[in-house]
Amino acid sequence: MAYDLTKRLVIGLASSALFDLEESDQIFRTKGEQSYRNHQRTYENEPLKKGVAFPFIKRLLSLNSLNNENGPLVEVILLSRNDPDTGLRVMNSIEHYNLNITRAVFLQGKSPLPYIPAFDIELFLSANKVDVRQATVAGYPAGMVMKGNIKDDINDHELRIAFDFDGVIIDDEAEAIYQRNRDLKSFHENENLKRNILHNPGPLNKFIRRLAHIQKIEHLELSQNSKYRPILKTALVTARNAPSHTRAINTLRELGIEINEAFFLGGVEKNKVLEIMRPHIFFDDQMIHLEKVAQILPSVHIPFGVTNP
Q1: 215-223, Cβ contacts within 8 angstroms, sequence gap of 24 or more
Q2: Which GO terms describe its molecular function (predicted)?
Q3: Could you report the per-residue pLDDT of 268-281, keeping only the tens digit for each?
């Protein structure tokens, strides 16, 4: 029986995003493949430590508890550069943490890029910079998880996802104007002139629209069950400020994207706001914004557009 993934949010996930593989990678780099293989076999029943994307993935999968006529809302597929033998420890760790991830692809060192469209993946996450860059250049929605200090409050059942706007939800048309002139005046003039013209979609546009669909299902659940506690909350954290906010809001409105919170910071450092918000994951296309943020919470670099030549 064919299994249709097009009606759900599909995340392609490298094991390097879900778990902390720093020790394993160090063994591979310094002692070679056979030592790496022996290490994984020796410790295959010892769970790997949680990685950057773990809190995000765990809570995302919890959305499958919602009633939905088309079945589960979320599907997470493991795309691993391991072979099936060394990948057994990853699958055992998934089972240990009770993550409902049942589909896996093991590629023995090969890039997962060709398989992204085969699974209708709307977001591919990996710590492998080359894989993410190649996926982005090929037009696939991909992000590189950043190393950082990850804390996961098991009593926090919300899923808070924060996004930059330009180069993430939308394309880099407006960003290119600023980067070309290094002039906020021309940027604001362009955005004010086009305030009623929708932005073109960016790499995570489909992903956030799928999240908006899930939020509508949560609203329906709440209307039928007053005791239900919504899980998903989204936030916009952008360096834009007035008057460029109008075109951004109009674009989100026309696309049917619900944003719970929006911060038009106009140059205020994003980490100051994000440290208070504590999202379980934050997406931005500029490393300059992510360097401080990644030290305090899970962060993902989207290597898209004019700021990532």
Answers
A1: 215/258, 216/258, 217/66, 217/68, 217/73, 218/66, 221/66, 221/67
A2: 5'-nucleotidase activity; magnesium ion binding; nucleotide binding
A3: 999 999 999 999 99
Options 20, 85, 164, 183, the catalytic residue:
164
Handedness of CA 116, 36, 92, 49 (dihedral sign): negative
Global pTM reads 0.95
Burial annotation 297-309 (CB, 10 A radius, 16+ → b, else e) = bbbbbbbbbbbbe
- Residue 1 resides in a domain: no
Residue 306 lies in a domain: no
CATH of the domain at 297: 3.40.50
The residue range of the domain holding 201 is 159-301
Cα torsion angle, 195, 233, 95, 48, sign = positive
164 is catalytic: yes
Query: 109-138 burial string, b = 16+ CB within 10 Å, else e?
Result: eebbbebbeebbbbbbbbbbeebbbbbbee
For residues 122 and 93, membership in a common domain is answered with yes
Position 38 in a domain: yes
Is the domain of 178 the same as that of 291? yes
Reported as a single tens digit per residue, the pLDDT across 224-256 is 999 999 999 999 999 999 999 999 999 999 988
